[in-house]
Amino acid sequence: MLSVAVRSLPHSSYLIAWFGSFFIFWVCFKGIIKKLPNDLPLFEQLLRPVFFLHVIFAGYMACTSIFYYVNALGYEYFSYVGNRDFLSGDIYKSIALCQRYYVLGHAALAHGIIAGMNDPQEKKYRVYAPSMSNLLLGISVACLPLGYVFSKIGSLNQFSVQLSGLSFVAGSIALAFAIRENKSVNLWASAGLFVLNMMSALSSGFKEPIIICVLLLGVFLLPVYGKKVLPVLIPVLVLLFFVLPTFIGNFRKISSQGTDAITARNKSFDSIFNNDHLSNDLQEDNWAFLTGRLSEISMFITYTQSTPYYIPYYKTNLLKSALQTIVPRVLWPGKPNVEELVMNRVYAARVVDRESIVSAKPAFIVDCYLSYGGIGIWIGLFLYGYVAQNLSALAERMFGGYFMGTAVMFAGLFQILWRGNSFEFVANAVFWSLITMLIFQKVFKARGILYQAS
Asked: Which of 11, 14, 136, 228 could be cross-linked to 96 through a Cys-Cys bond (beta carbons 3.0 to 4.6 Å apart)?
């Protein structure tokens, strides 16, 4: 409300809204509105939505805009270099407006998560696992080839992403448990899986899977080693943020020439290690990443300038499209291409040109805005947080508590909720992840891994 009251002062309005997100984090983590779950120590429940999802989603959405704002002021890192691109006179008003929407969305998300919290969950089932690292390694090894096979079968393609995500998470936790249990065979096997996941992530052309690989391993090692992990984890994450933009930029440039992913990855490594101007390239690429890719406020500004002034609010149309994407193509051969469906509104707002090969899917908050403006943001992000929290709670009830429920199943199957996406992709992924989770519960019960609590 304060940032709205001073909207005639765009710089003050922006900064109040930006700091407002950190205030929301503080209020949530102090348990001021609602007491945080206390059934487990903090480090052993970090993957619950109020912590991990909240920080990743809201941090990416609402906090990264500071780099775009500083760049608009003419700064690059801490040096004033002036504005290299033409910026309209009201750019600061546009930045402040979008940041007010961001903090509104953050508040709605936090309220949704808090409203859905009802801990501790009743444990209807218990997990039977003489060795947790064996169980996790088995899940990871089983899901990895299944995910690949299903990706090649049209009628089962819905499950491939979920199985691959579960394999990745289970393998990462298996590595942490192998270290805890001091099992050398499991340690080497899970370490090999982790390396394979990292190499696959490096060949994906995206930065997020690589960072998530390292971040998740750090989260899983925290209960084992405590704060001793942080002096290693934090510098590694900072290094990745600094190096990856150059690596991925080279990878995409080489791939666009028709080179296969493995060759492009290897050549990108060479361009990093055999570069006489590496320091300058890293600084330039990293700043471009921080201002143009990490923060998506520039695209949000374009949407707010086109809707509702030139393009009316979509109202329930985006929600209807999202529900349609749930239907498998095998049951609906004429089902619209989801990517094209989403990109139509991107082209309509002129965020990117139709001739561009870039995929610039709108963020979840953007689709909320395009539907009903500020009211759409509040309703959409509240429901997002509420649904995420209830899915986590459901997983804990189905799989005997936090560890197998939230840390393995929820984190493995519902990864899309960490960062979000457009309505269509979120609806499809969440629905089929829920179906996958129900199937896994039946399999676990049939195998004796889950048994009824007395």
From this structure: 14
